[in-house]
């Protein structure tokens, strides 16, 4: 089965009242904003639609909003922002545990702010929070397997603060915390996934959309998910019963883009095991 391949998304977007859009790979490339996408979202909002950015970024939304500013993503392109960091904070608060081992960047430790949680060494930890690899440019997830095996043997809960497996940073494809969580599950460990494609992230996104709509309920049939990852964005849309628009030039671009355009054969291969299919695909949001 084939799906429409678009060059402009405006007419499709106009059929929906709420867009839940991925961030990395859709509105920026990890370095700077993608102007056509930002302009498209701005026009959609000017016509009365609501845009919720839903990101697997591990920082809280207030912190990631500043990151988007630095990447020149205009505030006119979105109404609300929900991140994996927001979900992580909810999970930390609900855990009622005090001693955490953190894997990730120093700035990601904002997820612990306001909680009575002490960051400790491996031997003292009651639970593990992974927001990133400590250095995703020089490390590989398999390097963490021995440590993860020790945690799993002790039965420590593991909160994955970024369920993505990999991410494009410019032209580089780099590993994310989701790759660590996958190994942890392979080792028999328990993982709480704080982000797409899991329901808590979408529940927060829908709450944000209702808030942006002045408290009005959101009709699932009027929500469109926009994203570039089959495993997270499209799977989350399927879970929630939302339509989706697939951004082929994102994380799957090596498989789906040929000579700057969407390759139907490559697209079909990437989507072969995904049902229902997205309502359309586009190389980049425009």
Describe the structure.
This protein is α/β, with parallel strands linked by helices. It folds into two domains: 165 residues, Rossmann fold (3-Layer(aba) Sandwich), CATH 3.40.50.1000; 98 residues, HAD superfamily/HAD-like (Rossmann fold, 3-Layer(aba) Sandwich). It contains ten helices and 16 strands. The strands form four sheets. A seven-stranded parallel beta sheet has the order 1-16-13-12-2-3-4, sandwiched between helices. Strands 6-5-7-8-11 form a five-stranded parallel beta sheet, with helices on both faces.
What are the key terms here?
alpha/beta, 2 domains, seven-stranded parallel β-sheet, five-stranded parallel β-sheet, 10 helices, 33% helix, globular
Q: Span from first to last CA?
A: 24 Å
- Give the beta-strand count: 16
Tell me the CATH superfamily of the largest domain. Answer: HAD superfamily/HAD-like
In N-to-C order, the SSE pattern is: EHEHEHEHEEEHEEEHEHEHEHEEHE
Any idea what the radius of gyration is? 19 Å
Secondary-structure content class: alpha/beta
Strand order of the largest sheet: 1-16-13-12-2-3-4
Average of per-residue pLDDT values: 95
How is the CATH topology of the largest domain named?
A: Rossmann fold
């Amino acid at each position: 089965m084939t799906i429409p391949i678009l060059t402009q998304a405006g007419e499709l977007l106009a059929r929906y009242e709420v867009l839940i859009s991925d961030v990395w790979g859709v509105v920026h490339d990890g370095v700077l904003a993608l102007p056509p996408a930002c302009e498209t979202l701005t026009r959609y909002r000017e016509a009365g639609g609501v845009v919720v950015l839903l990101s697997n970024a591990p920082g809280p939304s207030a912190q990631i909003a500043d990151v988007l500013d630095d990447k020149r993503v205009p505030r006119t392109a979105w109404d609300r922002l929900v991140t994996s960091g927001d979900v992580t904070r909810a999970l930390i608060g609900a855990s009622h545990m005090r001693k955490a081992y953190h894997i990730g960047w120093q700035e990601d430790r904002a997820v612990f702010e306001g909680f009575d949680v002490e960051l400790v060494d491996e031997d003292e930890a009651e639970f593990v929070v992974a927001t990133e690899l400590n250095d995703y440019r020089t490390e590989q997830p398999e390097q963490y397997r021995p440590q993860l095996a020790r945690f799993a043997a002790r039965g420590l809960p593991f909160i994955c603060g970024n369920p993505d497996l990999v991410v494009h940073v410019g032209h580089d494809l780099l590993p994310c915390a989701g790759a660590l969580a996958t190994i942890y599950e392979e080792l028999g460990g328990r993982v709480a996934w704080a982000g797409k494609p899991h329901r808590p992230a979408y529940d927060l996104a829908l709450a944000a959309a209702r808030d942006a709509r002045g408290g009005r309920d959101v009709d699932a049939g009027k929500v469109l998910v926009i994203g570039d990852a089959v495993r997270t964005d499209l799977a989350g849309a399927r879970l929630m019963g939302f339509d989706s628009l697939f951004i082929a030039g994102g994380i799957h671009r090596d498989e789906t883009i040929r000579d700057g355009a969407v390759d139907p054969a490559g697209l079909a291969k990437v989507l072969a095991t995904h049902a229902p299919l997205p309502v359309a695909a586009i190389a980049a949001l425009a």
